[in-house]
Amino acid sequence: MSANPVSNANSPAPESGAHASAPTPAATTSPTFSPLYQQIKGLITQSLVSGEWKPGEIIPSEVELAARYKVSQGTVRKAIDELAAENLLVRRQGKGTFVATHNEERAQFRFLRLLADDGAEHPHVSKLLECRRLRASAEIARQLELKPADPVVLIRRLLQFDGESTVLDEIWLPGNVFRGLTAERLAEYKGPLYAMFEADFGTRMIRATEKIRAVAAEPMVADLLNIPAGFPLLSVDRVSYTYGDRPVEVRRGWYVTTGYYYQNDLS
Amino acid sequence: MSANPVSNANSPAPESGAHASAPTPAATTSPTFSPLYQQIKGLITQSLVSGEWKPGEIIPSEVELAARYKVSQGTVRKAIDELAAENLLVRRQGKGTFVATHNEERAQFRFLRLLADDGAEHPHVSKLLECRRLRASAEIARQLELKPADPVVLIRRLLQFDGESTVLDEIWLPGNVFRGLTAERLAEYKGPLYAMFEADFGTRMIRATEKIRAVAAEPMVADLLNIPAGFPLLSVDRVSYTYGDRPVEVRRGWYVTTGYYYQNDLS
DNA sequence: TAGTGGTCTAGACCACGTG
DNA sequence: ACGTGGTCTAGACCACTAT
After folding, report:
1. CA distance B13 to chain A (A)
2. Can you give the pTM of this predicted structure?
3. Which nucleotide has the shortest C1'-to-CA distance from A17?
4. A50: containing domain
5. Is the CB of A24 under 7 A from strand D?
6. What is the mean pLDDT of residues B178-191?
7. Are residues A89 and A110 in the same domain?
């Protein structure tokens, strides 16, 4: 459908590209200059948001997109390069470019960074404790950018590593986005939560921020994790964002870090 | 000096580039294929390691480097792009490309990610507790890739945020690399430790890995941090690496996370 | 005005995956 | 053999910084 990049007054229109004979005299030195490939990036992102290309699916080839947007292949390449760097797309040489998924091998542990002391990624099972709908508290509403008392879904669950209860999670989701989410659906689903979110609710988690503290286990929490009250736990407050930096999940986790550690790479 | 890329049997020699009339018939489908820009990247990195271009200095322009390595500007551009993405170089439009430094604004808090509850980066002062030379324990030697009983430097220090003792650090460094490092030198130095390391010892920290746990404060630690014994602390085990992924620092930190949190961004 | 990095194009060939 | 992404080149122009 929509074809050409928006042709900012500033950005050179495709047909008046840098090499062409007819230069665009208007608006050099512009305050709102945005490179062509950024505009292409935006257009591709739009197609991702709109669901034209769904997670796991292949997107049109670079030459196709170049024709569609009326730019050179190098320009869409640079756009795709950045989207791939942001984990929105995945390139596979010889095959094509695909919409990223939380089902991929490499994406599995992108958000849960708890490793065993030997450095191995132990498999874990999720035990659902609770899933109910309620009204957002002021604090949750603020973090999810909702109005106070808007509907939210609260999920509480336990993660067990090798049979040991290691992580307790409390997850808040905007109720309007996750309409059909029920305890039954959660209980029957195997695999990463985020994989289900993107498959069933069209909401793909792109990035997240975490605030990490050491806290003493409160009695209720300690009981669920089979540790004494007061035991030191990692408290992880996460906010996850989807396309357009819209927050769509607030999560508080308590991690038992005996035998396990939270891995972080600074670079 | 050294000019041309190594001309892998596989990689096209510059003069027989993809567009040239004389193709290199030898060795298509090679197991050790490495793109030209990767080789250039290696050559640039060599110049960084050797100290030809020092932290803060400007490196030759893209066209100069292209001439020097006998490749196109686009190829050195791609090499520099990656090095900039890895925080080894910093590009500044209109000025040039510079060797990254731990003195820059943006690099200041790249490794210490402790923020106040309000999200602000509070200034902190470092109080040196101890600095002495000793022989590496087996564990430290292993992590620093030294032989057991090799000389190491141990630094212990306290970080105070707004006058409150918040972080206790134990830092091990290879003694042979940090020869002239003394308590006096440490005490008089203002600013990031890593800035001094790169300025005085030519060792620039490139990346680090951290293993984070929640632990109960031991009496000695608790005393230094003005908290009761058993208080929950963040235990941060860091290994820092310099060029060529050589480990050059082992650091264990204990963080008080009341009023502060460890910030992490997942993407 | 000159030099630097930043963008854009067009075209060639290479490596990979699949028929 | 063909199509996909990946590399490489050459040349043009734009945006920014300094002189």
Report:
1. 23
2. 0.89
3. C8
4. 25-99
5. yes
6. 90
7. no
